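Lab notebook page, bench 4
Experiment: in silico fold of construct C2
Operator: M.H.
Input chain length: 379 residues
Purpose: comparison with the prior construct
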Amino acid sequence: MTDEMAQVSNLIGDIYDASLDPALWPSVLEKTCGYIQGVSAGLVSHDTAYRNAQLHVLWNDNPEFTRSFHETYVKINPLMIATQVQTKAPDIVAISDLIPYDEYQATRLYHEWAEPQGYGDGIQAVLEKSITSYGAVVVNRHLRQGLVDAEARGRMGLLAPHFRRAVNIGKVIDLHKVEAAALADTLDGLTAAMFLVDAGGRIVHANAAGHAMLAEAAVVRASGGKLAAADAQAHRALHDIFMNADDGDAAVGTKGIAVPMTSRGGERFVAHVLPLTSGARRTAGVAYSAVAAVFVRKAELDLPYPLEALADAYKLTPAEMRVLMMIVQVGGAPEVAPVLGISEATVKTHLQRVFAKTGTNRQADLVKLVAGYMSPLGG
């Protein structure tokens, strides 16, 4: 194994360990910065409806700038709007993928927040996305490190699926610290069904919710002692993951980050698989002869993304969407121009196109239009 392969393998193992022990996330982010070449990093989520951000875990941030981001810059952040409109999980994007880089350098966010910290570029992997928010792992690069290149994209691409799986599992277990040796005992109280399985898919342990799900046999069942999904495609996907998990964390790869499952009655469920063959999780795996823990729970309602729906309905370009959202959130052209780093004339040009495409002629009409799409009953 080369030094880089060993570094990646160890980092992936750390990512999965952090899904059980959130105190490990800062170290994971530090190592991620070292691997991707960045100076700070975070696990973050942004809510485009309420224009706020949750900076769940940060490494090497400046507390003063973090505070100012919460208070001021999250509300005028064009990257947040662009990410919500233009990306899907598991996209990997640099700043220039979201907004022309020269325009970004002219924004208030860059001049007043990024540049004073020495940040020149950033790369993020979108981990999850809901109708009004998204979560991502973000790595900021210093000006001296240059713009995000193909190598940085490739390296983030190697880590992103493991971040997605770990974050999803961390949400299932409610981010409580779990001692690996007592993993099964700790997870027995989860409302989500949990199964420990070996490489062949044989169930070596299940929690109470798992036993109940097996008894009902609508989503999964025990077939010859093995975990079997009612959904044939999900069944194949799960068993591929189990076999790969026996070869270590990195071998799990991109398959089955969240395995969609359909019950016999047509209800939608999702399964997340946590490898148990490396890191602190290995103790639990050895104790139960298990290679993976499988968490199964009902899927959330799949609703259309409102900003994407709005852009699609009226054929609005990314630039027009940025102007539209800033007009709604900040004010008129004189206020929006410095925020977006473009001239008032350019703002007005985009605004006139938005008016024409949406059949409106007042800013108040645009506010109502956006509010209608952002409402769960609107659009």
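Observations: Residues 306-374 form a domain with the Arc Repressor Mutant, subunit A fold (CATH 1.10.10.10). The longest helix spans residues 150-172.
Next step: discuss at group meeting.
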